[in-house]
Amino acid sequence: MEGTLFNIFAGLAVLSALLVVANPLSRNPVTSALFLVTTMISISGLFVLLGAYFLAAVQILVYAGAVMVLFLFVIMLLDVQEVARRKLNLVSLAMGFIAVGALFLLYKSSLESTYDETTRHHEVVETVQAEAKSAKAVGSTRALGQALFSKDKGFLLPFEIVSILLLVAMVGAILLSRKEPR
Amino acid sequence: MEPTLDQYLLVSGALFAIGLLGVIVRRNLLIIYMSLELMLNAANVALVAMSRFNGNLDGQVMVFFIITVAAAEVSVGLALIIALYRKRQTAEVEDLATMKL
After folding, report:
1. Is residue B92 helix, strand or coil?
2. Among candidates B40, B68, B84, B34, which has minimal Cα distance to A168?
3. Which end of chain B is less crowded, N or C, counting CB atoms within 10 A of the terminal residue's CB?
4. CA separation (Å) from B47 to A25, B43, B66?
5. Which of residues 8 through 47 in chain A touch B, CB cutoff 8 A?
6. ipTM of predicted complex
7. Cross-chain residue pair A3–B83, CB shorter than 8 Å
8. Biggest alpha carbon–alpha carbon distance for chain A
9. A28 by DSSP, 3-state: which?
10. Under 8 Å CB-to-CB from A40, ≥6 apart: which residues?
11. What is the pLDDT of residues A65-90, one digit of tens each?
């Protein structure tokens, strides 16, 4: 059951992420934005499978809700017309694909070498996974709140700093997008 | 059967690679920005998976902060794009080459 759901969500996330970046049918930013929403929702499905229920809800509220609406607003504001399809630079396109593909393969092989017989890493990984079976970190709202705000090992100062960061971002956004900067 | 940590990390790596591809290949500022968001989300998936398989909530707290910072980043970045568009009437990186030698 969980394996099937994982396959569905992971496949959907990767597929729609590909359609955000390289959609063969349309190069309209609105299409990309809508596929990005699909990606975000699939990722939040993955979060549910990982037991991070609060983060799954926040992911949908903040990303699929606020951030993507902001993106669509800006696309609307910029009024990007269907620009004449520019000639793609095929050399740079191929170079990009090769570089990123090589990077991904490197990452993949480094993941697989974790299970190499010659290293002892796989034992570590298996112990950790066996422990996790018993520990089961479930990120319910209550547990996450306690992890964030507990007095001895909480994250109270970072939380306050982040609130100031949000204030600065708000002021900055208003200042930057005013009609006549002065 | 429950998926393993490796599978989650592989998905995360794939999403990150796709985001990086978007940043490298695409020429539209908005789509480059969306690809950046994709890369941030790939990191989030990796962190939550690590947190799950370590039996520790600190990774999820980290993701909470990353989501907040990403929201702030998006608002400022999109404001910058709007300001740039007002000045130059374009959102393609090829047209923004004033600082190129």
Report:
1. strand
2. B68
3. C
4. 34, 6, 10
5. 10, 13-14, 17-18, 20-22, 27, 29, 32-33, 36, 39-40, 43, 46-47
6. 0.91
7. no
8. 65
9. coil
10. A59, A60, A63, A64, A68, B41
11. 899 999 999 988 887 665 556 666 78
